[in-house]
Amino acid sequence: MTTPLDPEMFDPVCPSDLSPIRIGDKWAGMIVRCLERGPRRFSELRVPLRGITAKALTKSLRTLERDGLIKRTSHPEPVRRVEYGLTPLGRSLLQPMAAACAWAQEHWEELLDAREASAHG
């Protein structure tokens, strides 16, 4: 049994769109992180990804699957369920993503200052 995902896994004051380094769409990097410790069901992914709509999650999952980063597995018995898990290619993204996160964390104040300066023209 996999440990449930932490609902507070992603800090709401630390939006992923602030980082200039992005994997796929707005949600893809966070989905990959959610799958880091093993396959998850759609409903499990929605717990830490509170702001995502079902439509956006479906679209991101399909794109990640198309790109070979995740695999969708359907289990017909005893109760039909679908799980999403990282492929070896998807798993190979974890280390570069960790480096990108560490860089963004190190330069957080500079990123915030640049965004604020840009917004005030």
TrEMBL record:
One of its GO terms (molecular function) is DNA binding. It comes from Micromonospora kangleipakensis. Gene3D superfamilies: Winged helix-like DNA-binding domain superfamily/Winged helix DNA-binding domain (1.10.10.10). PANTHER family: TRANSCRIPTIONAL REGULATOR, MARR FAMILY, TRANSCRIPTIONAL REGULATORY PROTEIN. It comes from the Bacteria. The keyword Acyltransferase does not apply. The keyword Transport does not apply. Residues 14-112 form the HTH hxlR-type domain. Pfam families: HxlR. This is HxlR family transcriptional regulator. Keywords: DNA-binding, Transcription, Transcription regulation.
